[in-house]
Amino acid sequence: MTDRRSSNAVYMREDLLWIEVVGDQNGETIRAMGELIDAQITILRRAHKPVLVLDDLTRIGNANTDALKGVAILARMLDYDLAAMLDKKSALMRGGTNLLLTSIGRADARYFSDRDKAMNCLRNG
Question: pLDDT by residue (tens digit) across 69-80?
């Protein structure tokens, strides 16, 4: 599903919940994307399937403060089993993001710069 308010997309592929974040983000685009993600998670939970998320951030633009706040809220509330965020940021950014996720109680989310490693994490825990 693609959000009409942005170019972001949320869909199932290879038994994974794929999220593609495209372009600049604000509070509204994040809220809209969160609604799509939550709908897919509900479908997976009703089917008694694990919720494995690949969050592809490789095409993200700028994110304003409202977007960052929205992401923090989503990270806390979404009912996923394991998530891998994919981006091409520096090792320092990956380490800082992984530390932040752990501090908010989401050690089940990891940050990667390599798609194969992200997929391996989701497939093999």
Answer: 888 888 888 999
Does residue 85 sit in helix, strand or coil? strand
Structure tokens at 60: 């993200």
* b/e burial code for range 41-69 (CB count within 10 A of at least 16 → b): beebeeeeeebbbbbbbeebeebeeebee
CATH number of the 9-124 domain = 3.30.750.24
> In a 10 Å sphere around its CB, with 0-12 CB exposed, 13-18 middle and 19+ buried, how is residue 70 labelled?
buried
Tokens of 35: 């609604």
Please write the tens of the pLDDT for every residue from 36-66: 999 999 999 999 999 999 999 999 888 888 9
Structure tokens at 13: 């592929």
Strands 9-13 and 16-25: antiparallel
